[in-house]
Automatic annotation (TrEMBL):
Protein name: Type VII secretion integral membrane protein EccD
Keyword hit for Metal-binding: no
Annotated keywords: Membrane, Transmembrane, Transmembrane helix
InterPro entries tied to this protein: EccD_transm, YukD-like
Source organism (scientific name): Nocardioides euryhalodurans
Transmembrane feature ranges: 116-133, 139-157, 164-182, 188-206, 213-234, 240-261, 289-308, 314-331, 343-363, 369-390, 402-425
Domain EccD-like transmembrane: 113-426
Domain of life of the organism encoding this protein: Bacteria
Keyword Ubl conjugation in record: no
One Pfam family linked to the record: EccD
Length: 430
């Protein structure tokens, strides 16, 4: 079928009372087309007309046919919906009850369960902090016992299908295990003890397919923290310097994380001559890639949170290096398409920034005024962006690319200055 004109399109409108062939302009809104073509004559009073393309996709009244991908020769369906009559009451009590029942959000049992789980998790975290501050054999033993009970409870909850409580209890078990080993006497530095505890408890959940992905970040973070402690002992460097360096390098190596995530997927082009791709296989591979990328991103963010006090203890250079690393993680979140990827990047950068700010405020009281000014300015800017609803912009994209490049360039010298690497090299080289 050939087009009748550059701005016209031939369509067939099917309604309950027959069908009509029309030649309609492509740029006029659908609402005006319905009024001007006489199609509303088939709509009874009290009915709302709907024009469907393909039988299911409703055309928006305020947009034209071309904007909604209606081609020449398309078949459109005209349907009508009757709005339900409003409730009529002559009693004020009945009206109030109807509003409360239907127009206001009510409290549900599921909401109560989630609230109880959240409150319990907060109290358990406070308990872990209290045991960590206790510093005694009784505190270490109690933390270890709670960790073992948490592992058993998380596995039971997972088998019952309670995903959220199982995840929270599993992470709390990791936290209590870290408290138990970090506080106990050992010849190894605290990162080795804490990292080993996270690896042991996190690995205990790997056989459970429901908890495997959500606990993998704990295992990877534990490996990185424990490795930092061992590397510091081998190199003869301060533990806080090595831990800060590892966390900043991992946060800065975002492209390497993407490459690592694509390795398990094994995406390869089909051989020549194969016309149809196995879509199920591609879906499985892409899903696996996104899962691995989310796990690596969460582990990188958790490592930033753990290393924040260490970076703050190194002074201005360490705090600046950690802040630039958090900024890099936030900037890279814009590259993701999926909600999980964006949320992981934003959560990692924000939690790392909050942990760093808290550590700086605690360790450096004379910096509090400057940190407060920076937090107020950053928070105000974020609120302004959210209120204005800034969408995708080429200028903002270029500014973000420039900021990411400058951060990558500034990160190595900041890291060298923070960790005292030059002094260590001068001591090694005669």
């Amino acid at each position: 079928m050939t087009r009748v004109g550059a701005d016209l399109v031939r369509v067939t409108v099917v309604a309950a009372r027959g069908r009509t062939d029309l030649v309609l302009p492509t740029s006029v809104p659908v609402a005006e087309l319905l009024r001007g073509s006489g199609l509303l004559d088939r709509v009874a009073a009290g009915e709302r007309p709907r024009l469907l393309a393909g039988g299911t996709r409703e055309l928006l009244p305020g947009r034209g046919l071309t904007d909604q991908e209606v081609d020449d020769g398309a078949v459109l369906t005209l349907t009508c919906e009757t709005d339900p009559p409003p409730h009529a009451h002559d009693d004020l009590v009945t009206v109030v009850a109807d509003v409360v029942e239907h127009d206001l959000a009510t409290w549900s049992v599921a909401t109560g369960r989630r609230t109880a789980v959240g409150a319990g998790a907060a109290l358990l975290l406070l308990g872990a902090a209290a045991l960590l501050a206790g510093r005694g054999p009784q505190a270490w033993g109690a933390a270890g016992a709670v960790a073992l009970l948490g592992v058993a409870a998380a596995l039971v909850l997972s088998r019952r299908g309670s995903a959220l409580p199982a995840t929270l209890v599993a992470w709390l078990a990791v936290a209590y295990a870290v408290v138990a080993l970090v506080g106990s006497p050992s010849p190894f530095p605290w990162p080795v003890q804490g990292g080993a505890a996270a690896v042991l408890v996190g690995a205990s959940f790997l056989p459970d397919r429901r908890l495997r992905l959500v606990l993998l970040p704990a295992v990877l973070t534990g490996v990185a923290v424990a490795g930092s402690g061992l590397l510091a002992g081998w190199l003869g460097l301060p533990v806080v310097a090595v831990l800060t360096g590892v966390a900043v390098l991992v946060a800065g190596a975002g492209d390497v994380l993407v490459w690592l995530a694509t390795v398990p997927a094994r995406l390869h082009p089909e051989p020549v001559g194969v016309h149809a791709l196995d879509r199920d296989r591609v879906v499985d591979q892409v899903t696996r890639t996104h899962q691995v990328l989310a796990v690596l991103g969460a582990a990188s963010g958790l490592l930033l949170v753990v290393a924040a006090p260490a970076a703050a203890s190194l002074g201005a250079w360490g705090a600046t290096a950690a802040m630039v690393a958090c900024l890099l993680v936030l900037l890279r979140a814009r590259r993701h398409r999926t909600a999980t990827g964006v949320l992981t990047g934003l959560a990692s950068g924000l939690t790392g920034s909050v942990a760093l700010a808290a550590a700086v405020l605690w360790l450096h009281p004379d910096w509090r005024l400057g940190v407060a000014a920076g937090l107020v300015a950053t928070g105000g800017g974020a609120v302004l962006v959210g209120v204005r609803g800034v969408g995708p912009s080429l200028r903002l994209g270029r500014l973000a690319e420039l900021a990411e490049t400058l951060a990558l360039v500034a990160l190595p010298p900041l890291l060298v200055a923070a960790t005292g690497l030059l002094g260590a090299v001068q001591r090694w080289v005669p």
